[in-house]
């Protein structure tokens, strides 16, 4: 029984380590989401400024503005795709963490039962 407790202690340590790693990965993804959102907002603001522009320009300057707008639109689409990928990664991490937490809770219940059995055996002898 005590050997079983040692095995459970090793497993508990492994699960705690995995949970810690997942927590760190979640924080990293949240940070990346915030950075992506900030950049997307800046690109969107700049794009709105260019689209709201009125006036006359030479054909070369007008072509430059059009190219800037196309580049900004491409960046905005890229940020949108990146945000979706980050959200998917985050949901996968949440799912994996939930599963690990269930396993951890089950392990703790087993540990508690074994500890109770051992303490009952100790008091009975």
Automatic annotation (TrEMBL):
InterPro entries per record: SsaO (IPR058100)
Coiled-coil positions: 76-110
Source superkingdom: Bacteria
Keyword Coiled coil: yes
Sorted UniProt keywords: Coiled coil
Name this polypeptide is given: SPI-2 type III secretion system apparatus protein SsaO
Organism: Salmonella enteritidis
């Amino acid at each position: 029984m005590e050997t079983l407790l040692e095995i459970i202690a090793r497993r508990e340590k492994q699960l705690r380590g995995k949970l810690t790693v997942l927590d760190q990965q979640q924080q990293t993804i949240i940070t990346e989401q915030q950075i992506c959102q900030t950049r997307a907002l800046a690109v969107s603001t700049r794009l709105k400024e260019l689209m709201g522009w009125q006036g006359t320009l030479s054909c070369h300057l007008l072509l430059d503005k059009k190219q800037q707008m196309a580049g900004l639109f491409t960046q905005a689409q890229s940020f949108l795709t990146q945000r979706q990928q980050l959200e998917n990664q985050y949901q996968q991490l949440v799912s994996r963490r939930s599963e690990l937490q269930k396993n951890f809770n089950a392990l703790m219940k087993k540990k508690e039962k074994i500890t109770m059995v051992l303490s009952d055996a100790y008091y009975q002898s």
